[in-house]
């Protein structure tokens, strides 16, 4: 089958076209003809860092985690799916799991679900990693109807899904962005936009919560921005972070009695632990999408498999809105 592989880790140009063996079916797995995949930040980190990142596969590596496609073969023990089902999931591209920058993947049936009927393959491929991350973070932080929820980075891959899910759960949603296109998208998604470049945390906390703070802060920016999340949270508030690889002073979190939820959605894939939870979340996301309450935003660019280098360049440029998708 056709694939784009990495023989040497580095810049976006390292992808090479190759013909590799089509994967063989295994028990509890399904063989999927891939229609589309999407690029996530972790994909660019693996491509750049290689062995420096503990979750990276060894070279020659087949990257790519998300996919949408059609089942062509069902493995022993799989009863929920059959040939011809359109499915989506996040099932490869790290450690010893071959990725999705190819025509086929053999995916663990606990890492997939039927794709939303009202979404295209490209739209469905944009959801799994960011959708599971956003859903898990909001759920672990105990989101409830009527809460004031702040999403940092609302025009990004995880953030724009978190806005829609928070609204689905009945919250009043606010979100930060740094430019007119980003703020416009945030408003279109149904959140009140906050320009973090022109408004201080203190200003927008006062403006939107009368100084009380947000009940739940979902931080898809992370790193140094987590200090802003602590400052924006209410007393005994909840903070969910997707980027927590940093040193941080927790003094403010202590004195405000905050709860911090670190979301690392790759754990089930890396450790083969609780994979069925991903299937459960994906099924919930399908239901929400089919109800018209979740539609991924696709970047204006359009790439084919041979152009994956350009897709990686697009995501790392910081200019992409929503998700960068690659059609196979």
UniProtKB/TrEMBL annotation:
Supply the InterPro entries for this chain: ADH-like_N (IPR013154), ER (IPR020843), GroES-like_sf (IPR011032), NAD(P)-bd_dom_sf (IPR036291), Quin_OxRdtase/zeta-crystal_CS (IPR002364), Zinc-ADH_QOR/CCCR (IPR051603)
**Signal peptide from the UniProt entry:** none
What is the species of this protein? Catenovulum agarivorans DS-2
Q: Is NADP among this UniProt entry's keywords? A: yes
- Can you say where in the cell this protein is located? Cytoplasm
Q: Which PROSITE patterns match?
A: QOR_ZETA_CRYSTAL
* Domain Enoyl reductase (ER): from-to ranges: 10-326
Subunit structure comment from the entry: Homotetramer.
GO cellular component terms, semicolon-separated: cytoplasm
The domain of life is: Bacteria
Q: Which GO terms describe its molecular function?
A: oxidoreductase activity; RNA binding; zinc ion binding
Name the UniProt record assigns to this protein:
Ripening-induced protein-Zn-containing oxidoreductase
Which keywords belong to this entry?
Cytoplasm, NADP, RNA-binding
Assign the protein's first listed, main location to one coarse class.
cytoplasm
Claim: Transmembrane helix is one of the keywords in the record: no
């Amino acid at each position: 089958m056709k694939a784009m592989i990495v023989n040497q880790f580095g810049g976006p140009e390292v992808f090479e076209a190759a013909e590799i063996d089509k994967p063989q079916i295994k028990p509890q797995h399904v063989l999927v003809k891939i229609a589309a995949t999407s690029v996530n930040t972790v994909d660019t980190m693996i491509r750049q860092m290689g062995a420096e990142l503990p979750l990276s596969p060894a070279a020659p590596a087949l990257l790519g985690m998300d996919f949408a496609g059609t089942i062509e073969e069902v493995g022993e023990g799989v009863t929920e799916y059959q040939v011809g089902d359109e499915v989506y999931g996040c099932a490869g591209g790290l450690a010893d799991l071959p990725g999705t920058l190819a025509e086929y993947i053999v995916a663990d049936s606990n890492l997939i679900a039927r794709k939303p009927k009202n979404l295209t393959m490209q739209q469905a491929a944009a959801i799994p990693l960011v959708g599971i991350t956003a859903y898990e973070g909001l759920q672990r932080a105990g989101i409830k109807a009527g809460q004031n929820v702040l999403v940092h980075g609302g025009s990004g891959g995880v953030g724009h899904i978190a806005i829609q899910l928070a609204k689905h759960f009945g919250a009043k949603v606010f979100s930060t962005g740094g430019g007119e296109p980003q703020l416009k998208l945030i408003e279109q998604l149904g959140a009140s936009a906050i320009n973090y470049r022109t408004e201080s945390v203190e200003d927008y906390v006062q403006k939107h919560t009368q100084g009380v703070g947000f009940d739940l802060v979902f931080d898809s920016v992370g790193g140094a921005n987590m200090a802003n999340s602590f400052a924006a949270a209410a007393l005994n508030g909840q903070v969910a972070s997707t980027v927590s690889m940093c040193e941080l002073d927790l003094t403010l979190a202590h004195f405000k009695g905050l709860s911090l939820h670190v979301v690392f959605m790759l754990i089930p894939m890396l450790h083969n632990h609780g994979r069925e939870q991903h299937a459960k979340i994906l099924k919930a996301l399908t239901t929400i999408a089919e109800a018209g309450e979740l539609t991924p935003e696709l970047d204006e660019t359009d790439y084919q498999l041979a152009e994956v280098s350009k897709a990686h360049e697009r995501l790392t440029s910081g200019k992409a809105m929503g998700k960068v998708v690659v059609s196979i």
